[in-house]
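Comment on the following before class.
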Amino acid sequence: MARREPSLFARLIVLISLVLTLGAAALTTAAWYYAREAANEAYDRLLVGAAYQMAEAVNVQGGVLTVELPVSAFELLALSERDRIFYKIVDTRGRTLTGYGDLATPESEAPALGGPDVQDGKFKGTAVRMARTARHFSDPSVRGRVDVVVAQTTEARTTLARELTLRAVALIMVMSALALGGAVFAIRYALRPIGRVGTALLDRDPHDVTPVSVSTPRELRPFVSATNEFITRLRSRMDLMQQFIADAAHQIRTPLTALKAQLELLSRQAMDPQGRQHLCRVQERVDQLSRLANQLLSHAMVNHRAGAVPFESVDVVEVVRRAIREAVPDTLDRDIVTALELPPLPVEVEGDAISLKEAVKNVIDNAVRHGAATQLTLRVREQPRMVEIEVEDDGPGIPPELWSQVTERFGSSSSAGSGLGLSIAADVLSAHGGGLGFQNRAGGSFAVIMRLPNEMRQNR
């Protein structure tokens, strides 16, 4: 069983979907980093602002450092209701003036340079964001640097980063869906020329072997060119086959006819009984060879014309007349009464006259050689939806159990025949949409019935 290949459309959609998925994953990752940075930047400003306010609240009174923490500093940090705030102020001697003494002081050179420093850290097992700043004193009683550390838990900023990321992801999903929908439409539109080429090939007449002429994009031109090249080669092969059949018919029939004539002349010469017996056998074999060659050529010709020659209006009555004129003189070697029962007016069907004549000739030849003892009758009957050509003889006929075999190639071959006659007729009738049937008649006669559809009468 042939392996089923996915369609080009499916392949493109899968590839585009994969690209969009990877792109969406990359954008989602970038959105998370950007959202986290944005949340940190927003909350870090509040954290640094609070640290600055606390640093400004440190003063020298009476030669001693004092701290009056401003409420506004805590109000800034209180904007995040979910987070907790920790702070510590360290004097010039490294002692904690106020706040959480166990709050670690970040190691950084930024305070020494006078700028704030913000880092991630942990306090009491909780992730925090820590801002450190410093204030320098040059009072006669107090000289040195005072460090201010403010820490805040990260729950609010994580929530903000998550919300920003989810909004970005929603936007990415919408854009990806729109991109995929646009890709589906674009691919359908881009692949439409392939459908036009397929339609042009399917709609062509079976007998049309001219090159395909259909407007296609540049990418499809190699395919159309290859198809046209194949059609050209096929037409050349068909012409060669037809020429071969014609040459074979001439080259084989001519020497066989001459050989039969020589044997006929030789049979008139005086010879002993044994030589006469051998001569009779040779004549029989030559007759069989001549008939087999004719039937093989007829079969090849019929097969070649099937589907290659356009049907036209054919008069079945005239076809039968020509068939019996050509068949009976060649095969009749005893007294057989031949009768024709034909309608007075032409009976027309759509078909190939030459192939139909070959079919009728083979059925007549088969009846004369293997059936008819003293009588052969040909009839043409026009039915409401079909035309019947009947060949009836008074011979023993074909047993019903062999009816399905005699229409096969060499299905009924014997010492007296090749088994091709009825096969040729069945092939021709099948190509015309008809069929071959058999019937045992009362009185001991046997009939072969060829049926053809009568489409012309239905159209009328």
